[in-house]
Amino acid sequence: MNQGTITTELRMGFARIVFAHPSHNSMPSGLLAELVQKIDEAAENPAVRAILLRSAGDDTFCAGANLDELLAIEDEATGKDFFMGFANVILAMRRCPKPIVVAVQGKAIGGGVGIAAAADYTLGCKGAQVRLSELAIAIGPFVILPTLIRKMGVSAASELCWDTQWHDSRWAREHNLYQRVYAGPEELFREARLLAKRLAEHSPAATTRLKRSLWEGTDHWPEELARRAEITGQLVLTAEAKGALAKFKGK
Prior knowledge:
alpha/beta, two-stranded parallel ribbon
């Protein structure tokens, strides 16, 4: 299975981390684990004062979990481990003492929405639609739900969870998932770089204290996200979920 690639580049005080996968930038387990490693490395590097996280290309930001891996899950332990993939990325973003900017240049689905919501500053563009399709495949976005509620509030998070339909970038901006929305990917990436550069110019000590304050009330997340990954790992084994996943893949 193609696990995709991640590249990291240090620029003007910030690290640019770019993930890529040929299947609409979906995230297999190996790619998620590598992303956690890259975020942790940037967090520990004194030359890095901010992080810009984005995906490759000008189309889909992230198609979420890898469908082939989902279909291959056969026991609860494997299911929990799989869903801990996105949980671990969210936790790495949370514990990183440096501000993380996420640039969403295209469609974001499932865990991709979770990554956008876990950013300290999220930028989108006109084509950056969002969708949570988990309920339609007989599971649920349990792992990413805390970060959605933290960023958007219960009402907007509920709407995304329940209706499983696409929501455009204007909706995402109005409901606080995106702080800003630009016309297209070129402008988005340019402004994301400028923002990351500005954030990197601030005092590291003050930045760390501010991020810690903004994430207050999330100390229980490591245990909570693990519990939610276990729930999802159980649901994905049901006949209803297996049938829905097979049907979804056949489209």
